[in-house]
Amino acid sequence: MFHISKISPFFFILAYLDLVLSTFYKNDIQNLAFILVFGFIFNTVLGGLYQIVPNSQSQKLRYPWVSYIVFLLSLFGNIFFLVDNLKAFSGFILLAFLIFIFHIISCVKMVKPLTIRFILTGIFYMFLSVIFLNLSIFQGIVPYQLSVHTFTLGVMTNLIIGVLFTWIPMLTMQVLNLKLADKFYYVYQVAVFLFLSSFFVLNYNFILLSGVILLLCVLFYLYIIYDSVFKGKKVIVLPLVVKYFLSGWFLFLLGTLTMLGIIFFNRFDLIVLHVDLMVYGFGFLVLSGAIIHLLPRILWNWFYQEKAKQGKEVPPIHKLINEKLVLVNLYFYIPLLIFIIGLDYFKLFDISSSILGIFYIWFTVGTFYKLVKFVFS
């Protein structure tokens, strides 16, 4: 690694705390959306970008202490959310982002690579999202759903798609169909713009139409992955994190279909099922896969790189994660999520929240306890 982001593990810890915290808000769809999107996803994204962007540019991040200020501002935002001060919460999130963007952009020198274009587009949408969040909370002039979907679609999916266009071929030792992927970038931005425009006007027929277009775009994206990695190839043993990524995209398709069904049949009382699939499903699996990929490498380079250079015995990176347990958790989680969706369908939120909270604590401890052990050994 060219650059080691020592703040990223703290962002990831805060993200998982937000994930557990979110299970207490199943009865309040607005606050549930806020803590999941501007807590769990926001902190995961900042932690990931602080590691990914400098390395993609082969640049060291200048003034790394600024990243700790960004983290503290996000933490304060979380604290104000807990005491139900949404204005302070949104203000701190905005301030954290503004400092972050000036900090991270300072190391960007190359903008033409496909992944960088997706990342920069995602950062642009992050700016819009936190502005919409503040306009929604302070003025009420835009629906809060616009800020939420600007982040989930404009930010999260752009970043995930861009990074996975690099990671999945790399991890499977295949070559990306760059010609198709480059065309997809422009097609996807049109789809995202149409979808977010539909939420700006809150016209559900427009949302329905743009949702279908978005679904077709994601199928196009998955075809590019298939064409690059699987088509005409021998049987490929998928790395652990790739299984997380692909499982997450399967749940994204289900979540989009669920949203379309909710709108078509006018069953907005079931919107929590859409949240289950898109955030607890797609978001959790893909972002957890990214953390499982990044965190051991960050900590290994942080604590063991110099020892390895000195010829001392150090553990291999893959030993820092209990891969068997991580795989079992993946296979267990998908049927568990289906069960959770069933409970939420019947409005049994207290039961579903308790089960999810326990699982997320188990997942976090079970996945990362080896990392903690190695760090303090």
TrEMBL record:
Keyword Transferase: no
Lineage: superkingdom: Bacteria
Keyword DNA damage annotated: no
Membrane-spanning ranges: 7-25, 31-53, 65-83, 89-111, 118-142, 148-172, 184-201, 207-226, 238-265, 277-304, 325-345, 351-372
Alphabetical UniProt keywords: Membrane, Transmembrane, Transmembrane helix
Protein name according to UniProt: Putative membrane protein
Source organism (scientific name): Sulfurihydrogenibium azorense (strain DSM 15241 / OCM 825 / Az-Fu1)
Upper lineage: Bacteria, Pseudomonadati, Aquificota, Aquificia, Aquificales
